[in-house]
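Invent a record, attention on tokens:
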Amino acid sequence: MSITLSRRQALGAMAAVAAVGTLGAPAFAREKVKVGALRFTSHAPSFVAFERGYFAEAGLDVEFEFFQAAQPMAVAIAAGDVDFGVTAITGGLISLAEKGAVKVVGGALQEEAGIDGQMILASNAAHDAGLTSPAALKGKTFGISTAGSSFHYMASKIAAAEGFPGEIGFRPLQKVSAIIGALKSGQIDAWAIVPHIAKALTAAGAVQTIGRVADYLPDYQVTTIFTSADNAAEERSKTQAFLAAFSKGAADFNAALIDRSTGDAAAEEMVKLIHGYVYTDRPYEKAAPSIRNGAMRITPEAALKMSSITDQLDWFKAESLVRGDIAVDQLVDASYVASI
């Protein structure tokens, strides 16, 4: 049986964990925890929580393991080699959950109206031929990494909203770099991607922006926090501690780069902190604009947008990309955070 906490209850549980750490008696004697991450701005809450001592306050001795893609991270967590990670809901993740290997326990990156989020792009050639808005995507080719990816989901929802479901041609290209190359060269017509990539491509004149994903999926829970099913069931204190520390990192990130409520100096400090993990091969002056452009809101207090999770699961089932009988509580352990 899953239990959904109210917002008040979730806040109280997180405050209790934080208070214990502040009093110098953490719930754990600095338990070692491996956190899977990608070197993306969207993973910044984990970096902030580490650098500002929030994990340590919660009794966690965190070590990062970096991945090149989300799917290998999911496999590592299912195997118990990594404890926690952040990724989009994909067919692969749902299949691991259906096998009883992983559980989603919190929310991370989200789309929000009024905040720069994922952008819908057209190749210059397609744009010149009339692809100037998502309404013109009918019959066009759209780049995705693989079938069952978040790219696949977004494009399908856009097509359905515009009245031509199933009438986009999907081109699985495996890697983001391959999709970028195909779009720039006109081998595909369109794509949707996070702002730090989209803005850079548009600014360079390599592609054209024709819309925003938030206009079609305004409450999209883009990424989620997940762990092994064993951790979720048997290591509640550790999982609660991780979520509490991650949430503090997310609050700092949102305040500095999304709400801009802490001032310019705090924003600069945040960008410098993130640069220790993201675009490390670039000098700060060149990396900073991309980090700022990649800032999207992280769901406060790791709350889960359950309507979005359910919509995604229903789409995967309707497309026969996962088993049709999998229930949402097989994918999500809703007992850890508030549902919104």
The chain has two domains: 7-110+220-331, 119-215. Confidence is low (pLDDT under 50) at residues 1-28. The CA atoms of residues 251 and 300 lie 7 Å apart.
